[in-house]
Amino acid sequence: MEINDIHKGSVIMIDGNAYKVIDNQAVKPGKGTAFSRTKLRALMSDKTIELTFKAGEKIQEAEVNYFDCQYLYNDPESFIFMLKDNFEQYSLPKDAIGERAKFFKENMDCKMVFLNGNPVDVNIPPKMDFKVTEADPGAKGNTATGATKQVTIETGAQITVPLFVKQGDTIRVNTETGEYDVRV
């Protein structure tokens, strides 16, 4: 597979490690050859790296399988998921989940990623709805610049939202960026 064929969400192998493509930008400079600037997330550790590939460079696509699953609970070291088709339970270490853990709700539907028959990652929905559990009242005054405040959602995560969001509201959050999307 060529680097030009990868897209956001593709899983590729580099030096024996599987990486998920978070972002891929094709750059065509006025002088010189085109290249791709790629942001990757390691499936086993949740660490991100940025690599540059020359246009037309060959890369190995990882052979992964996706299965519908449900998040059940977490213990001190890992997160436990159940496959929906056969009810088997699998765990992923907290290191593999990383920052996405703050968006996990019990019984949440997701997709488990398997590489060589072993679970290596889980894909959560890109946007999810959460109930605001704590919100300070917005300060009146200088709102010409789109004033914001911090609120706590049902999972305990802190999200920056516009001043009009109050406790008890349901908001949609982009789970990839951790940013407020809309009040629902």
Structure description:
This protein has one helix and 15 strands; from the N terminus they run E-E-E-E-E-E-E-E-H-E-E-E-E-E-E-E. The longest helix has 4 residues, at 94-97. The protein has a five-stranded antiparallel sheet with strand order 4-3-2-1-5, with no helix packed on it. Strands 8-7-6-9-10 form a five-stranded antiparallel sheet. It has one helix spanning 94-97; strands spanning 11-14, 17-27, 35-42, 48-54, 60-61, 64-74, 78-83, 89-93, 109-115, 118-123, 127-135, 148-153, 158-162, 170-174, 179-183. A hairpin with a 2-residue loop joins strand 1 and strand 2 (17-27). The model has no long low-confidence stretch (mean pLDDT 90). The chain has 184 residues and is mostly beta strands. The protein folds into three domains: 3-61, SH3 type barrels, CATH 2.30.30; 64-123, Beta Barrel (OB fold (Dihydrolipoamide Acetyltransferase, E2P)), CATH 2.40.50.140; 127-183, Beta Barrel (OB fold (Dihydrolipoamide Acetyltransferase, E2P)). Helices cover 2% and strands 53% of the residues. 18% of the residues are buried. Residues 128-183 form the Elongation factor P C-terminal domain. Pathway: Protein biosynthesis; polypeptide chain elongation. Belongs to the elongation factor P family.
In total, how many beta strands?
15
Major sheet: arrangement of strands? 4-3-2-1-5
Helix-strand makeup class:
mainly beta
Helix content: under 10%
Q: Average pLDDT across residues? A: 90
Query: Can you tell me the CATH superfamily of the largest domain?
Result: Nucleic acid-binding proteins
N-to-C series of helices and strands: EEEEEEEEHEEEEEEE
From the 3D coordinates, which CATH architecture of the largest domain would you assign?
Beta Barrel
Assembly level? single chain
Low-confidence stretches: none
Q: Predict the CATH topology of the largest domain.
A: OB fold (Dihydrolipoamide Acetyltransferase, E2P)
Counting structural domains, the number is 3
Subcellular location: Cytoplasm
Protein name: Elongation factor P
Domain Elongation factor P C-terminal: 128-183
Main location: cytoplasm
